[in-house]
Design goal:
By secondary structure, the chain is of the alpha+beta class. The chain has one domain: Aminopeptidase (3-Layer(aba) Sandwich). The protein has five helices and eight strands. It has helices spanning about 20-25, 30, 45-55, 105-120, 135-145; strands at about 5, 10, 60-65, 75-85, 90-95, 125-130, 145-160, 160-170. Strands 1-2-3-4-5-6-8-7 form an eight-stranded mixed beta sheet, with helices on one face. Helix 1 (about 20-25) packs across helix 3 and helix 4 packs across helix 5.
């Protein structure tokens, strides 16, 4: 385990997580706001291949998020597009286990990963995009210290229509920590 809190444990992802990711990829409610390939169902082989390569790049850090009590994988989060020159990256999260929705878990994960980005990776800026019609995610990001920087108009396509995305970010000097 890399990181732990009272409720959650954070660990590396590997091919043993294929089944959970496959189940999540088949659930449109789970993936409706996903910015990744998980917005479309994938085969178990594709997911297994992706998981076998996920830790191979220095441009992304990914953590499997598990329940502390059961060790069950409930989602994943991390920072992508890491630029050592600009000391910046882009936060991402997917909570696949719907039993954990609406319980403050997204806020907790966001704070932990953001803190890791600033205090372990030495980043200065962490940004994200959030679908404008995903108020739960936006609240979690705001509670975690992210501020609105702009709107990317009609930059996402979901459920047959174009949707705005909010650009949000937090800077290391403004970070309150966890």
């Amino acid at each position: 385990m890399f990181l732990t809190t009272n409720r959650l444990k954070y660990r590396s992802l590997d091919i043993s997580d294929t089944e959970e990711f496959y189940n999540w990829s088949c659930d449109r409610e789970v993936t409706q706001y996903s910015l990744s390939a998980y917005s479309y169902p994938q085969s178990k082989t594709d997911i297994s291949n992706w998981l076998s390569e996920i830790n191979a790049t220095s441009k992304t850090v990914s953590f499997g998020v598990c329940c502390s009590e059961t060790n069950q994988l409930i989602g994943y989060a991390g920072i992508a597009s890491i630029s050592s020159l600009n000391r910046s990256g882009e936060y991402f999260i997917l909570i696949g286990n719907k039993e954990y929705w609406g319980k403050g878990v997204g806020t907790e994960i966001t704070k932990v990963i953001t803190d890791y980005g600033f205090n372990t990776l030495g980043l200065h800026r962490i940004e994200l995009t959030a679908y404008a019609d995903n108020p739960a995610a936006i609240r979690a990001y705001e509670k975690s210290g992210y501020v609105h920087e702009g709107v990317k108009q009609q930059s996402g396509y979901r459920n047959g229509k174009f949707v705005d995305k909010f650009l949000m970010a937090v800077l290391a000097p403004n970070w309150q920590g966890i």
